[in-house]
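As described in the Methods, two query proteins were run sequentially through the folding procedure within a single session, without resetting any intermediate state between them. The first query and its resulting structure tokens are shown here.
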Amino acid sequence: MKIALFIPCLVEQFHPQVGVATAKVLAEVGIQTYYPKAQTCCGQPVYKSGLRKRTIPLAKHFISLFEDAEAVVAPSGSCVSMVRHEYPVIFHDDKKWLERGLEVSGKTYELTEFLVDVLGIQDIGAQWYGRAVYHDSCQVMRALGVRKQPRKLLENVKGLELLEMERPELCCGFGVPFSFKFPHISEAMVKEKVSYVLDTGAEYLIGAEISCLMNMGGYMQKQRYPVKAVHIMLWKMPNCRKT
């Protein structure tokens, strides 16, 4: 398969090791990938700020860049949700770009979804010793319906004790641009979410959405809580497990 890697802005700018780990994991299961260097933002922050017209050139660029790939895989559910659900809305009155957008959105996948649902892989031979809890990000769980897939992968990680927190569906409070516009509400939300993480006694907070991990990980670091926030793909890079 000709698989294109879409590496979201936050991953590329702040946690590029997640992109490297994504390519490494896919290579180890026999998938060849390539990284289109001309890729830019998918348009999600602009779109969610209400600037639809400014989103259009970004969406067109994304479609043009990835339409020749057999599949597009990203280590971020929110960006995949943007492409899959919002591109058809953006181009609803433009037949040409709507057709091209639907073709690309139909083959764009969140990474754990691609591994489990498309490739049928639930065990990649990973080892990771410790107690961990998984965070269901809003865009990953609600928008994409991805909930069981990451857990299936984590259940097969040798040495990992996978715990469940109370109210796993609760939002962490990030939600671009929500956290910027309503910082006090956002802080209250992340405080509540982290309290459920701490109640489990987990050493690691694992997630598939880097924005949520940055939000919760930053809060826990500020409070000096002994829990590390880790992207789910970093099990292959033990020296980079702290987000």
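Immediately afterward, the second query was submitted; its sequence and tokens are:
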Amino acid sequence: MARVTVEDCVLKVPNRFELVLLAGHRARAISAGAPLSVARDNDKNPVVALREIADETVAIRGLRDSLIGTLQHHVERDEPVEDDMPRLMAGQDAAMEGIAVDAYADTMSDLAAELDAALGGDDDDE
């Protein structure tokens, strides 16, 4: 890559990281068969892409939008319908209440056993 080409491109796209992304995207488009807007002059695709950016023969905004479109991934998720939420939450509340009742019963039986042991055990001997 010619230093002059990169320096010319930095005037058009000040952020070097963005320049690399845009030039790479354009070079891939050229490899896929996109028409050239400058003469190839026996240059490879990345150099041609940089020359196109430097000469402003490609729309940088359009190139940027195309790059963003290819990098975005849209994932469809099945989310519960708003009407189902109260029913689902009621089931969750009931489950949590059941857990709390079980924990309370376990704690009470443990306390009763400790109290019984502390008071001397069996009441059947009296």
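The chain has a mean pLDDT of 82. We note this only descriptively and draw no conclusion about the first query from it.
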